[in-house]
Amino acid sequence: MAETETYMKYRDHHQPVEVRVEDLLSRMTLEEKIGQMTQIDRSVASFDVMKNYFIGSVLSGGDSVPFPKATTEDWINIINKFQEGALATRLEIPMFYGIDAVHGHAVVYNSTVFPHNIGLGATRQVAITS
Prior knowledge:
The protein is mostly helical and about 130 residues long.
């Protein structure tokens, strides 16, 4: 016999945000709250780390790549595994993922990288009048 699911306001998108947040926070343990406030580097993230420590955010900063010549598909598979770990927690809170890619995804194999904005601006010829 299947168990009846408990109604959770935080999962009900019809509820006001304030109600959803209050409900979620009231259900969280101290460890879950600490985990949700924690951001780790991609190099130390895994399904198990996300699940066991309730990590809220993962960042690929600078040269943080999974392996040389990792393709877009490789990145998607890796990040999806982190998300699966986050969603395997008791409250199923999804993680945020960030990548240091202001000018393009330079760490993704065969990606496009754009010049700095000041470099773009320096390429324009503007008439200076006094």
